[in-house]
Amino acid sequence: MTDRRLLGRVARLYYEEGLTHAEIARLLVLSRVKVTRLLAEARQEKIVEITVHSEEPAFADLERRLAASLGLRATWVAPRSEDSCSLGRAGGRAIRELLPRAERVTLGLSESVRDAVAHVRELSLPHLQIFPVGGGRPGQASGADPHDVASALARAVGSTVFGLPAPLIARDRESAQSLLRDPGLRSALAGAEQADLLVVGVGGLETARKFWSAWVDGSVFDDLGRRGAVGDISARFFGADGARIASPLDERVVGLSLTQMRAVGTRLMIGGGEEKTEAIRVAVRSGLANALVTDNGVAEALLAGQ
Predict the structure, then answer these.
(1) Is pLDDT above 70 for 113?
(2) What angle do CA 77, 80, 84 make, to 5 degrees?
(3) Which of 17, 167, 241, 246 is 20–30 Å from 155 (CA)?
């Protein structure tokens, strides 16, 4: 890790003294590339925090065109980048705008939703009830499980979270049915179903294959591909028309169905990246989502496909 003193010196020279990258490089005997990397690291380490005093989003025109063209209630667009930070910030902005209007919110299994929740601050919503969309992923915690994300959001806004102690994908159909007979679990799912705000991620078939590789045999995803699956929301797979893909895997899922999710009033989807474009397109066109957070690359592709 870089010495924080060096990070502080470079940051002060750039942000306070107004020196260029080249001037700092000469002064500190560094390369210009090194200066650029140090400035980026200074922001990552919170040595530098930048506040933009404007309510205008970076992609305001694109957001308006996307919402109008696709009939969405609202859209938030982030710049496409190699990491998830930009999408997470846009997702956090969306959640902050939507939460005050909600009484109950249900959160899905998604790294994108996890990253968005991490950017939710400065809200106090003690009346809010937060539910996971279903069970979690077994093994080492990733922070992306619905209960983990729901708990993180509850801590951020001072609200109540309801647990759902079960795996999202059970060992087999019989195990799933047994879990669903538990009164406590059924009560939590009933609460999740009654939400007025749903926040979920989306995955393509290959994305899901990688995400579940340690727990679900690859042949299961081969079968889903043959059945026409193009994407999933919290392990509920859908085809090119947005309809449920009936499969042995679907019978193992402990969580809300696509039909139950579609019944929620506001359905916010957070997802970006070229590999998810088709799944997002289908989800939006079929009504699985009526609000969207995505990156500018996906947004342009969605508009071009109209």
Answers:
(1) yes
(2) 90
(3) 167
Residue position matching structure tokens 């989800």? 283
Instruction: Give the model's pLDDT for residue 57.
Output: 83
- 54 inside domain: no
Cα→Cα distances 215→143, 240, 257, Å: 17, 26, 21
Domains of the chain: total? 2
Are 161 and 15 in a shared domain?
no
Measure the CA angle with vertex 230, ends 225 and 231; round to 5°: 115
- pTM above threshold 0.70: yes
Query: Residue 115 — very low, low, confident or very high, per pLDDT cuts 50/70/90?
Result: very high
Token match 């010495």: residue?
3
Q: Within this chain, do residues 85 and 220 fall inside the same structural domain, yes or no?
A: yes
Place of tokens 């538990």: 182
**Is residue 249 over pLDDT 90?**
yes
The pLDDT value given to residue 150: 94
Distance (Å, rounded) from C-alpha 112 to C-alpha 114? Answer: 5
